[in-house]
């Protein structure tokens, strides 16, 4: 518990504290703030959605009941549609390109883009690139024809599934494993760490390494709260946030790589795409870009594409 | 210390006659305003979140509705006839058949009191007629009725699943073997008593009656098939068709169709004003009018009213859960308990005792919402299977319903049978011993609960 | 008076029946869409969940009117009529306080979504907090805006069209239902004060059914 006079920082998130990339980062942040800012600030972490889920936490933050959260980037589409760029399929070639974009002027500007609505982005936290799994082999987009895919609530992801000829389905995360296994839905998309952590690979024919999208989180705070802190407290806090962000983001690729290897070691089938097959996916998804170009901004898309080329 | 004030306040308010929901909600609000920095808006948010954020709880209104259509539809009568045809000829046969009927009805309904009302209102009279004492009849029904929440579907299991985020489908499967086991133990108990006391036995009416009664009950029994096959599929034949929540909604629609168009016990085709029930060809417009027929409206309203009162308790219990989480009380309790070196055995005993005491004051689902988040983290630390823990909790709730001073099934049975509470308590006592034995078995043999879900759905994935 | 009473009863009962019926049909339709048409009503779940919240929150005040909320009556049944009356009065005060705090909380929660100000003050409203940013732009996840609600964007979103139904709509039920709840608790409190009722609860969920069942059983026994 916090001592009298300390600034209380409540951080509510939805994963475990020691296995998931986000949970690990949150625990590290908690530890460093409580060690280094003892007497000035104190952080309480509420993991596993015990306090709020990712939809409610942003409301609670605007209300002043929570100070930190790290929902997935799609959750910010309600605040500004620019964030749809991260859901657009094949927008980024790999996690390096994602990172370069986030560090670019365009990416940094997005951190400040929600100030008017009361949020301040503090940093992008990686999970990693999304893969696709289903109850049959997926090699070209038409393989997904007629399949039912569980997706998060997001117009972009719905459009993406429809572009593949698949039927997007909504389902509570706790029912997904059972849903896949019993066949209520046929497939899903997620990062390696989630596919391994939730054991989805056990109940799927296989996972295709599509790297088609990205699942990252945005560490956010209430801007009025942040501005109300004493300058030295704020500076020290932000410094710790940046250091933790850098440290953990460096690890994320390794975490997902290890998860992928664990999937294989546990007998899960992993399929890689040839350059041709991958191009077929990219082509199939192109109409999705056109549909959301207006929301995302052509300049943002161009910036992302330039980065893709550069990292060739 | 603060937590003690909170719980004393909750219980104090309840005992002086404040509605349970208000006792929970008001205590939480006062606690939050006094000890925390969080806003009152967060309370209202949590109240709405009870619905918005827990889509699994949606199964509750649907199962209640399905059960309402089934009770209105006289399905209980047909199930009882079938049960008597099967086992009525044993010594104590009518009592054994009553247990069987409760088990079957439990597979249609998610609630224990509903099971007591549906089956009890018919068989208690029938048992008296053939020479059982009223006390014995009431004791049987009071106990067997508790299977309503153990044999899937179960409202209490839905609440548990929502509170600790495990799969509802898994919980339902976990209840199957314990439910059959408890039912069988009760039947054996009755049979032994019947032999000792030389109770009456019925006549074997032959396989003809078995098939005849099965055909009559078929449409009601099909509901069980729809729910189970819908959620789990049949290996090699079909995959699952819907989530447990959807299964409940489909069950409601099905029950409506059966009640209105097949059994025609309600709705536009039902027999009324001295007129025989009609068939669909005599009155084809009923396909449409059934939707707003007075019987349909009444059933929807009655079920809706029950949903309101039950869910209002659960929503307020979720407010309490939010407030204690906000104050990090579950963590404190976990670390205290672990610091005292609690092992799994000691822990499970404590859980059983807490629930048996708590069950005296609280509506079972509301109690679960509060206790589950407090004990769940400890259970995970101790390596207890979350599904097993869930079943232990459900069985505790069952026992809470039939132990004095306060117990849902005691009230309901007393009401239905027109007996005093104490009369029912005494009547239920011999069977209560069986249920306690059953609780001990469930608590210390996790296999009973986990073997079926693990076989069908693979080992539990522990997310936390 | 009695006409108005019957009319509101009827209205509330029909609303409860309607919402439950619609929830069921909506969910059922989604299953049919998925299995028969290999399609999906993506907003079905969210819409159903909102109807669920409306059903229970609006129903809560109806349940007060009918003294149908669940409670523990073991102690009050043992008490003499004087004690019983005192306990009932304390209960009424507790209920009124509860509804009052929740009404404040509900307003504070909902107001920003309507670009209105929440109240200031922790225990009691002491004016309005005019520094609060409006959240009229905040949309639900999946529900499209029905055409007859297109005017909402002019009122709450500076004319920017909504892609999804704004949250101001589903959350409206909070202040409305809590105001109704407060009203019904005040009425019940008055009824206790004037001695018309002596408790505000039922002891269990099946009280009505039990009465009916008991009657049936009695008839059967008399027929024996
Ligand atoms: Na049941
Ligand atoms: Na009890």
Automatic annotation (TrEMBL), chain B:
Family: Belongs to the TRAP transporter large permease family.
Function: Part of the tripartite ATP-independent periplasmic (TRAP) transport system.
Domain TRAP C4-dicarboxylate transport system permease DctM subunit: 7-448
Assembly mode: The complex comprises the extracytoplasmic solute receptor protein and the two transmembrane proteins.
Membrane topology: Multi-pass membrane protein
Pfam family of the protein (one): DctM
UniProt-annotated location(s): Cell inner membrane
Ranges annotated as spanning the membrane: 7-35, 55-76, 88-108, 114-131, 138-160, 172-196, 217-235, 241-263, 306-325, 337-358, 365-384, 390-412, 424-447
Name used for this protein in its record: TRAP transporter large permease protein
Keywords in alphabetical order: Cell inner membrane, Cell membrane, Membrane, Transmembrane, Transmembrane helix, Transport
From TrEMBL, chain C:
Keyword Membrane in annotation: yes
Keywords (A to Z) from UniProt: Cell inner membrane, Cell membrane, Membrane, Transmembrane, Transmembrane helix, Transport
Locations listed in the record: Cell inner membrane
Keyword match DNA repair: no
Source organism, top-level taxon: Bacteria
Main location: membrane
Tripartite ATP-independent periplasmic transporters DctQ component domain location: 23-110
Positions of transmembrane segments: 15-37, 43-64, 85-103, 172-193
Signal peptide: none
Similarity comment: Belongs to the TRAP transporter small permease family.
Oligomer and partners: The complex comprises the extracytoplasmic solute receptor protein and the two transmembrane proteins.
Protein task: Part of the tripartite ATP-independent periplasmic (TRAP) transport system.
Name by which UniProt lists this protein: TRAP transporter small permease protein
């Amino acid at each position: 518990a916090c001592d009298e006079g300390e600034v209380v920082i409540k951080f509510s998130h939805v994963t475990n504290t020691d296995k998931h990339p986000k949970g690990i980062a949150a625990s590290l942040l908690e530890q460093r703030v409580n060690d280094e800012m003892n007497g000035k600030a104190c952080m309480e972490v509420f993991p596993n959605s015990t306090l709020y889920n990712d939809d409610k936490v942003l409301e609670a933050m605007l209300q002043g009941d929570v100070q930190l959260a790290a929902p997935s980037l799609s959750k910010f589409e309600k605040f500004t549609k620019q964030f749809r760029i991260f859901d657009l399929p094949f927008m980024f070639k790999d996690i390096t390109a994602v990172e370069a974009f986030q560090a670019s002027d365009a990416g940094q500007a997005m951190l400040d883009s929600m100030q008017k609505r009361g949020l301040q982005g503090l940093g992008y936290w990686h999970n990693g690139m999304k893969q696709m799994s289903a109850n049959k082999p997926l090699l070209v987009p038409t393989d997904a024809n007629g399949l039912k895919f569980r997706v998060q609530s997001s117009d972009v992801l719905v459009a993406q599934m429809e572009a593949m000829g698949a039927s997007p389905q909504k389902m509570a995360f706790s029912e997904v494993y059972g849903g896949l296994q019993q066949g209520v839905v046929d497939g899903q998309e997620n990062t390696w760490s989630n596919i391994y952590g939730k054991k989805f690979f056990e109940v799927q024919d296989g996972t295709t390494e599509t790297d088609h999208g990205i699942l990252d989180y945005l560490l956010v705070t209430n801007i009025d709260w942040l501005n109300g802190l004493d300058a030295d407290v704020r500076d020290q806090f932000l410094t710790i946030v940046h250091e933790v962000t850098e440290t953990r983001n460096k690890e994320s690729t390794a975490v997902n790589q290890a998860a992928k290897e664990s999937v294989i070691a546990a007998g899960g089938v992993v399929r890689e795409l040839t350059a041709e097959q991958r191009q077929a996916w990219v082509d199939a998804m192109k109409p999705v870009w056109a549909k959301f170009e207006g929301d995302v901004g052509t300049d943002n898309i161009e910036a992302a594409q330039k980065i893709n080329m550069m990292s060739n | 210390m603060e937590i003690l004030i909170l719980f004393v306040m909750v219980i104090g308010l309840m005992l002086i006659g404040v509605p349970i929901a208000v006792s929970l909600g008001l205590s939480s609000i006062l606690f939050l305003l006094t000890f925390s920095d969080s806003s009152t808006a967060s309370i209202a948010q949590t109240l709405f979140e009870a619905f918005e954020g827990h889509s699994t709880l949606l199964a509750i209104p649907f199962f209640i509705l399905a059960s309402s259509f089934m009770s209105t539809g006289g399905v209980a009568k047909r199930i009882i006839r079938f049960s008597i045809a099967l086992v009525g000829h044993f010594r104590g046969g009518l009592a054994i058949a009553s247990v069987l009927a409760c088990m079957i009805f439990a597979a249609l309904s998610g609630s224990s009191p509903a099971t007591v009302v549906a089956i009890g209102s018919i068989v208690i009279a029938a048992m008296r007629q053939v020479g059982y004492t009223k006390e014995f009849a009431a004791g049987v029904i009071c106990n067997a009725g508790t299977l309503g929440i153990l044999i899937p579907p179960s409202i209490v299991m839905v609440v548990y699943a929502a509170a600790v985020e495990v799969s509802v489908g898994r919980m339902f499967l976990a209840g199957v073997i314990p439910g059959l086991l408890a039912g069988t133990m009760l039947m054996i108990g009755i049979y032994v008593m019947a032999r000792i006391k030389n109770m009456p036995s019925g006549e074997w009416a032959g396989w003809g009656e078995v098939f005849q009664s099965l055909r009559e009950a078929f449409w009601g029994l099909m509901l069980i098939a729809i729910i189970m096959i819908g959620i789990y599929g049949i290996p090699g034949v079909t995959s699952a068709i819907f989530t447990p929540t959807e299964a409940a909604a489909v069950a409601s629609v099905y029950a409506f169709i059966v009640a209105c168009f097949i059994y025609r016990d309600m709705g536009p085709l039902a027999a009324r004003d001295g007129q025989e029930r009609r068939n669909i060809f005599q009155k084809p417009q009923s396909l449409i009018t059934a939707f707003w027929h007075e019987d349909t409206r009444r059933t929807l309203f009655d079920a809706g009213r029950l949903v309101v009162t039950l869910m209002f308790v659960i929503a307020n219990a979720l407010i309490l859960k939010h407030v204690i989480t906000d104050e990090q009380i579950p963590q404190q309790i976990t670390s205290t308990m672990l610091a005292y070196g609690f092992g799994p055995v000691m822990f499970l005993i404590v859980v059983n005792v807490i629930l048996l005491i708590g069950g005296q004051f609280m509506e079972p689902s509301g109690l679960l919402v509060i206790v589950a988040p407090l004990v769940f983290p400890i259970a995970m630390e101790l390596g207890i299977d979350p599904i097993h823990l869930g079943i232990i909790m459900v069985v505790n709730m069952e026992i809470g319903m039939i132990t004095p001073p306060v117990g849902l099934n005691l009230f309901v049975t007393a009401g239905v049978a027109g007996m005093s509470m104490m009369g029912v308590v005494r009547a239920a006592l011999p069977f209560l011993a069986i249920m306690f034995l059953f609780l001990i078995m469930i608590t210390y043999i996790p296999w009973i609960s986990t073997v079926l879900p693990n076989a069908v759905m693979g080992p539990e994935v522990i997310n936390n | 008076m009695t006409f108005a009473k019957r009319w509101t009863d009827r209205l509330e009962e029909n609303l409860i029946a309607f919402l439950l019926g619609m929830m069921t049909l909506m969910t059922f339709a989604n299953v049919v869409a998925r299995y028969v048409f290999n399609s999906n009503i993506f907003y079905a779940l969210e819409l159903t969940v909102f109807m669920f919240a409306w059903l229970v929150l609006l129903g809560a005040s109806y349940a007060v009117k009918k003294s149908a909320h669940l409670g523990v009556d073991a102690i009050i049944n043992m008490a003499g009529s004087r004690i019983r009356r005192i306990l009932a009065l304390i209960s009424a005060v507790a209920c009124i306080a509860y509804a009052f705090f929740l009404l404040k909380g509900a307003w504070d929660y909902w107001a920003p979504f309507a670009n209105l100000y929440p109240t200031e003050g922790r225990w009691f409203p002491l004016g309005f907090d005019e520094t609060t940013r409006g959240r009229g732009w905040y949309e639900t996840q999946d529900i499209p805006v029905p055409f007859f609600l297109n005017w909402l964007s002019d009122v709450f979103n500076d004319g920017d069209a909504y892609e999804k139904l704004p949250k101001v709509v589903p959350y409206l039920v909070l202040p409305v239902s809590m105001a109704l709840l407060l009203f019904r608790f005040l009425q019940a409190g008055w009824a206790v004060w004037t001695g018309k009722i002596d408790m505000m609860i039922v002891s269990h969920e099946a009280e009505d059914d039990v009465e009916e069942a008991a009657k049936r059983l009695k008839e059967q026994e008399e027929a024996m």
